[in-house]
Every structure is written in structure tokens, then in C-alpha cells.
Specification:
The complex is a heterodimer of chains A (485) and B (142). Helix content of chain A is 34%, strand content 26%. With 485 residues, chain A is an alpha+beta fold. Chain A starts with 9 loop residues before the first strand and ends with a strand. The model of chain B has no long low-confidence stretch (mean pLDDT 92). Classes of the chains: A alpha+beta (485), B alpha+beta (142).
Amino acid sequence: MGEEWKGPLRKVDEWRWLIPRDYKKGMRTDGLIYASERMIRDIRKDQAPEQVANVACLPGIVGKSLAMPDIHWGYGFPIGGVAATRVEDGVISPGGVGFDINCGVRMLVTSLEEKEVRPVLDRLLRVLFRNIPSGVGSEGRISFSVSELRKVMEQGAQYIVKRGWGLPEDTECTEEQGAMPGANPDKVSQKAIERGKDQLGSLGSGNHFLEIEVVETVFRPDVAEMFGLFKSQVVVMIHTGSRGFGHQICTDSLNVMQSAMRKYGISLPDRQLACAPFNSEEGKAYFESMVCAANFAWANRQLITHWVRESFEEVFGKSAQELGIRVLYDVAHNIAKLEEHEVEGEKAKVVVHRKGATRAFGPEHPVLPQRYRNIGQPVLIPGDMGTGSFVLVGTERAMQETFGSTCHGAGRMMSRSEADRRSRGRDIAQEMEAKGVLVLAESKATLREEIPEAYKDVSQVVEVVDRAGLSRKVVYARPLGVIKG
Amino acid sequence: MKKFEIIDHTADIGLIAWGRSMEELFANAALGMFHIIADLRGFESPKKDFESEVNLEAGDYEELLVNWLNELLYLFEVEKVLLNHFTVESVGRYFVRARVAGNRINPKEHRILRDVKACTYHQAKVEEVRPGLFRAQVYFDL
């Protein structure tokens, strides 16, 4: 395990901890971690705060090097890290996005209540498990030609809807409308195409899952109503990303960045922070290929949505429309975005890196769909498998403080071998069933590595961002059934 | 001499490998990575149904090692093979030339443990700890 971090953390208030910029040479700004006093003790247990300080060294960083309460030790950037860089003279870093480009979550709402789903839950899970490929190296059910794949890279979820696998309103309620501009398929390597072409429309493995949940607690009834959420309502959470396609694009780009760093004379404390000026050839190529992977991920979640609809139709014998299956929202939590924010009193275009962080735009933001314009963006926070999810709403405070960003989930706090030791001899699926959560998994080993106690308590994470004003709790949904790769 | 050792990391997994030469070091690191990916116990079958050449260049040894492991990961995912035989012919300044072999994945026979997304540069290190003993360290994103 990592050593305990001994650096300075100055308490700003109950939810904010500052790493002053004079802590180490090369820091261009302060670091700021959002956490409670209790969580800070855990955060200090490894070198994640050092990574917050390292990110503060990135050329062209504006504002502070930020970390959300689900912060944990990552590569280069901490998981839970947010950093904005100036477009004109700042850098873009593939390490600030991560390997699973546009890993994210989508929540589908239904008009069904728990009492209607409980009796058929077992069958519903089996049908979903059959219809949605999952597991290590899982492959999708539809094969896409290279020219179709180029359309996926450019048009993302919108292309999938055009092909008949979804409704136009699905993409309206997706970040970037499911198709982020700026994609350039010519910048994507043949290797990425080879690795990704069969994986579109698959969940994958690791911490990815699909969960059927029921809204248990409503914290803000007015907002819940505007989101179309109500107590006892059944919802579906889809957590996956760009699969091998995105992993390969990140791998290829990090490779290019190693020489770009030498070329542009950039020196940083950690090689995994490798970056290039946003306006350089290498920086642009990374951004354009990253957008391709982001769009691939939105297409992936869209295809899965289609199969969720089909599965519900099969089990309930009614159309998806009659069952009220609609996309609440779809958010990315590993991405770099070109956004306009206020920097030192002036509007500026910046590159916002969110690595294990969620966009949380507040009310009246022009990019939000009409439906949510007055109230702010739905923010979806999954727990680990089998602990349920929170829906929050974005705030003006997040716009001012964190470039419109908030936390993304629970955050791992136990290594896999420790999880393995603690789960030895236990039947995790059976334990979860005893708690009322049905589990279907491709691999028992994955289940044991992903035991709930390996993760931070998501409710504590959400409490911090709520209290700090970065986003407000709307509902909590408890799990009924999980599909796991 | 131990060939490799798997190390703990909060979110992911690390690997330390040893070798009496740079070639052996690269082969052992590759073997270690495939032990993270799959349960290779009893997987010593001499019959190989996949073979490939790997030739890579990089800016330094760390970059070379990371590239080497990522290349093998690519073969694993695209060719759907478990590699367990690495003939590293030459590791130079800064290139690697090797032949790798293994078996096509058969779900009945092979137990795949986890999805390794990539080998990272995070604390990547290749060093000669004493004359004739090389050590490498890398972390994988899972």
C-alpha cells in the first residue's frame, strides 16, 4: 500500500482542505480537497493528496487543482480530480481523463413501482443478463463495419438512435446530446478500431454494472417532481464506458505525449501526467481522438438502453412507452471538455479535465435541455455494486467554485488482494440476496473483488458535496438487482 | 530468484519483476501481467496455437517496458489469446525484439480473472539493482 501522506492540509471550513501552493516546487496554484474531517483521515492514508499537488504543476492551470470527496490514488491525476487549463497556452493531459474515456452513467426511469417489479425480478434480471453482453472482453451483439464505426465516433448516441435503437429524446437528455463535437476519426489508430469494433454494446467488467433500483428517499420533492422521480419508482442505472476502444486511444496518446513532453520542454513530477499544449499538433490529435472515444461510450450506453427497453417489454408484455421508460440523464465521469467559465472575473474558454468527477451545471446554463433549464442538471452518482445510487442537481456554486463539477461515486478504499482475503470462503451473491439484492455475475472473482466494503460509503461522499453546495441531493434509490461483468 | 511479485494498490494492481538480464526481465514482467489477467495454474500446455513477433522502439527503458506490456495486452484482447511463452531475443537501447506464443482463449478451459485496461507510467521503473540483477515495477489500470 502507499505510505501515509505527510504534507500540509489547511482547513478552510468544515468541507474544504487546502494544499498551499508553496508546499512544493513547481505548483502553480493551490490544491483544494472537498471532504469531511473524518474522510480526510482516510484520504491521507495514501499519496492521493500528493497527486492533487502534482496536478497543480500543469502548465496553464487556472483556478485550483480540485479533488472531490471520493478522491483516491490514481495514475497521475487522483481519481476524483478536476483541473481546468487555459486553451491559449495551457495543456491537455490524457492522464487527466484516464483510460476509460467517458466512463459514465445513465439512469432510465420507468412508471413502474417496486410492487410490480419484485414478483418478476428474477426473470427480468435473467432476460437483461441474456440481452446485454457483459464480462472481460465481452462483445456486442451487433457487428459494425469500419465506416459505421466512424459514424459512431462522429455522431455517438445520435447515430445509434438514427439506426432505430432509441428515441430522439434519449439524446436530448444526454450530456453533449450524446455526440460531442470535434471528433476526428482519422486521428484514431487502427489498433483502437481493432480493439473496439466488436465491443460496442457491451458492459465489460470491473466496476461496471447495470442495476435495477427503487427510489427510496426523496430529499427535495420539488426537484424530484421536475425530474419525474417519485418514491417507490423503479429506475435502471447503467455504468460503463468506451471499452477497449477508449483504453487503446489513451494508451496510444500517452505514448505520443512522452515524446511531446521532451519536444515542448515540459517537466512534471509524474510521467503519467504526460501532456502537450492544447494548441499543439499532439494536443489537438489527442482531443480529437478522445472525442471519438467519448462518442463511442455514449453510443454504447444508448445500445444498452435499447436492450433494457426490449427486456422490460418482454417481461411485462407492454411497450417501453407504456412502461414509461425514459432517459433521466447520462453523464460522463472521465473526460476533458472545452467549456466557458468565469476565470478571474472574465469569461474564458478552458479545458476542464474531469477524472472521476461529474459535470454539475447549475440552473439556466444554456447547454442544458429545456426540460432541466430552470432547475439545473441531474447529477447521477452510483454507489458500488449493490449499494444504490443518488440523484443530485447541479448548482450555481459549482459553477463558481469547481468549473461546474462534483463527485462521481463511492471511490475504492481497499486493494483487490485485501478484498480477496476478506471475501475468502464467502458467497457474495448469497449475502447480497439476504439483503434483498439479486445478483447475476459473469465472474465470481469479480464479485469478490467488488465487495461493498471495498468502497467508501457513497452517502458520506454525497453528503460532503451537498453540504459544500456543489450539488444538492434529490433522491436516493436502493438496489433490487444487479448485473455484473 | 523470484520471477515476479504482484503488489497491492488501493484502486488497481502493481507488478514487480526480476531478471538476470534485460531480456529475462521483460519476459518475466509479461508473465506476471498474464497472471494478473488469468488463472494460469496448470496452464503449462506445450501446445501453442498462437505465435507472433513483437518489435518495438521507445525513448527509454521505462517507456519500452510500458509499450511492451501494452502491446501484449492488445494481442490478448484482439486475438483473444492467453500468452505464456515469451522469447525475448533482444532488449537494446531502446528497442525490444521478441517472439511470443500462447493459446486461444477457451472459456471452458481458461479462467479469466480481470479486465486490465492498460499498463501505466505511474511509478514505472526499470533498474539494475546490482550487476546481473534487473528489477522492473509497473502499475496496471483495472
